[in-house]
Amino acid sequence: MAFKLVDIVRENIKRLTPYSSARKEFSGAAQIFLDANENSFGSPLPENYNRYPDPLQTEIKAKIAEINDVNASEIFVGNGSDEAIDLLFRIFCEPRTDNVLICPPTYGMYEVSAEINDISIRRANLTADFRLDFPAIENAIDANTKLLFVCSPNNPTGNSFPREEILKLAEMFAGIIVVDEAYIHFSPEKSLIGEINHFKNLVVLQTFSKAWGLAGLRVGLAFANAETIATFNRVKPPYNVSQIAQEAILEALKNYETVKKTIAEIVSERERLIKNLSAISLVEKLYPTDANFVLVKTSDAERIYRYLLAEKIVVRNRSSVELCAGCLRITIGTSAENESLLKALRKI
Ligand SMILES: *Cc1c(COP(=O)(O)O)cnc(C)c1O
Q1: 45 CA to middle of ligand 1, Å?
Q2: What CATH number matches the domain at 257-347, 3.40.50.720, 3.50.50.100, 3.90.1150.10, 3.40.50.2000?
């Protein structure tokens, strides 16, 4: 059965007449802008923040299209990936009727967003070695399952799922498969962006918050076929990415080569940290990771977490999460920060 977007978009979204902003209705070569009730006298800041930003982030998309070898019409830019996640619910999931499927342990926002949108969550836990459980996934899906979230590399486990497995899911699933690649830049695996036109139900999420080091700007990306992205654009708030964020992202995109170097440094620091952690006796297990963090199984997560806090080091206690008993999730810091962590753990 061929995937057709109209078959799964909510009726109210199909009927929707999108908000038409002043900046969208007019995009010619005017010099005097009296169309958007902005403050023509300026602002307390020296920059021209008195004007509304480009609703479609045209310049940013042109650059990102080039980097990822896609068309600008296949890119959504949002207020963090979290905005893209929320939009997916609002576009595809009918409150109190539809459901979505997650594969825990995984990123917490999928569930929070589901609850906010009054959509029930189904779970197909990963296997004990953090692999996708195909029979559990197939069992959990029904006719009302609209979204399937696969986070790869997965947070908090750190491992990636083989691309053939993800694509197999895309092929068998009638809803939208959302592949969250927040950590892809730290992974040897290739992004699935190249598959968006082979699998019309595939949405790939990426973010400027991790490898790009710009979590404070709140800018995330979704890649999908042009028809799906056009639907995102109809539903999103018109000015969802601020002028400051757009300018900063454009500037950052000029420095992709530097970012790549930083990523390589983080990866090498990750390997060094893992090697050193493995020699510490309270570390029972280090799970393989393709991300900028490592999940560590310890003898007593709660006690170690509190001890590290007293040492002014905060890690993430994941010990109450399914399949993660005893586990702490540790972000890769700078070399000096990782040394402080190791020093503290050695004298426990
Ligand atoms: C950190 C993270 C994100 C990033 O979210 P933003 O809203 O873009 O900051 C997305 N997905 C996962 C799995 C993450 O861990």
Answers
A1: 31
A2: 3.90.1150.10
